[in-house]
Amino acid sequence: MSRILAPAFAGALAVALFASPALAQNKKQLALVTNAAADFWTIAKRGVEKAQKQHPDYSMEVVITGQATAAEQRRELDDLLARGIAGVSVSAIDPKNSTAEFNKVAAKAVLFTTDSDAPQSNRAVYIGTDNIAAGKQAGAEIKKALPNGGKVMMFVGTMDADNARERVQGIKDTLAGGGIQILDIRTDGVDFAKAKSNVQDALAKGGVDCLVGLYSYNTPQIYSAVKEAGKAGSVKVVGFDEDPQTLRGIADGTIQSTIVQQPFEFGYQSMTDMIKYINGDKSFIPENKLIIIPTRVIEKSNVAEFQASMKQLLAK
Q1: What's the DSSP call for residue 232?
Q2: Which is it for the CA torsion 197, 203, 207, 210, positive or negative?
Q3: pLDDT tens for residues 157-173?
Q4: Could you give the C-alpha distances from 132 to 54, 167, 289, in angstroms and in order?
Q5: How far apart are CA 37 and CA 54, in angstroms?
Q6: Taking every pair of C-alpha atoms in the chain, what is the biggest distance, in angstroms?
Q7: What is the pLDDT of residues 231-278, one digit of tens each?
Q8: DSSP H helical segments within the chain, as ranges?
Q9: Is 64 strand, coil or helix?
Q10: Is 8 exposed, middle or buried (0-12, 13-18, 19+ CB in 10 A)?
């Protein structure tokens, strides 16, 4: 997978990891369904690949959601059900409008959520980030970037997803009562060109001191727009996730910091825990049905070490 997947990959692209279709027919099939096409999911795919090597008696795949809509995700899930899928771990794009579909999946297969939860559905467990806590980490980074206060603009694919809403809530909670004002939250529908134009518009209008990218591809678009506008250093940037361009921006001082998750673990634990569940072991599921994978802050002092670890992880 390249840094940004080509348009030919749009739609319900099922990437079989190791098993041929003929062999897969004799094995229980498990799938990770993403919410977008981005490097974040390439890292998660590495986790699925590790699980596949450990469990060759299963067939595992990653389904890349090219169009970040609930309708597209429903179509992908229906396709998986038609193929007799045994387990699905899904990043919910629009949980409120997908509960019926998720429950349909849960009635026929093991259903987990990852990255973005659907707590009102019949999913067995959520594996991923505590996004309110991650938002609070980002809020603390914004305060460091703007010690004397200022105005903030946030950018994200959609506010329909729980992870986006929770990150915003965590940021708001942390900034409340201080001298930092959130001007707006701009959405782009996971359209990378629109993501960049949203930033360009904000920079052209002026009056903003810090730009915050809430999804993995948002911060690289902020970085590019800020550099092109000659605003590097004068406008602060705080982001999420470990896109290579984001890490380069931290290294060169354009980006203050980024909150990174552990998508490798999202992929790996989704597969290995679904196998446990299928085999009757539910002891790994906490009472609150949340398996939280910790986040960390990457900034100038630790970015080189983190870049090296990402290069090793993504090496084939």
Answers
A1: B
A2: positive
A3: 999 999 999 999 999 99
A4: 33, 5, 16
A5: 26
A6: 63
A7: 999 999 999 999 999 999 999 999 999 999 999 999 999 999 999 999
A8: 21-24, 39-54, 70-82, 99-108, 131-145, 162-175, 192-205, 218-228, 244-251, 263-278, 303-314
A9: strand
A10: exposed
